[in-house]
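Researcher: Next sequence.
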Amino acid sequence: MRRGLSVEYVDGVVCVVIADVDALHELAAIVAQSNSARVYRGGDPLRSAEPFVSAARACIAVRELVPGKELEPTSILPPTAVWITADQAASELGITARAVTKRAAAGGLVAKKVAGRWWINLKETTREAA
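Model: Next structure:
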């Protein structure tokens, strides 16, 4: 298994592989803090910050559940799509987050549930809103 950090370019997408759990935890904290500072200063939050932090925390939780076993990197969410939270999708669609999760659970939106949280394909929300 790889150690540390590597950056790869796969099918037009930049992929960062972080094999060190402590480094991933630190990076997630930095991204969360930086995004909070943007909002505090009156800026818009980065769309990718919350999904990154949540996915990082989910990876850390999985890694801690299986101590000592080397885990192969796997893709939880397809990297070619932009994934947003149910709250963000609700804002895009003009409905409640609960309505988004109901649609996702029923198969009405392209979505995945990871670590108990719904992730919605951004293209689907823009298509639905149109």
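Model: Residues 81-130 form a domain with the Arc Repressor Mutant, subunit A fold (CATH 1.10.10). The beta strands are 5-10, 13-18, 83-85, 111-114, 117-121.
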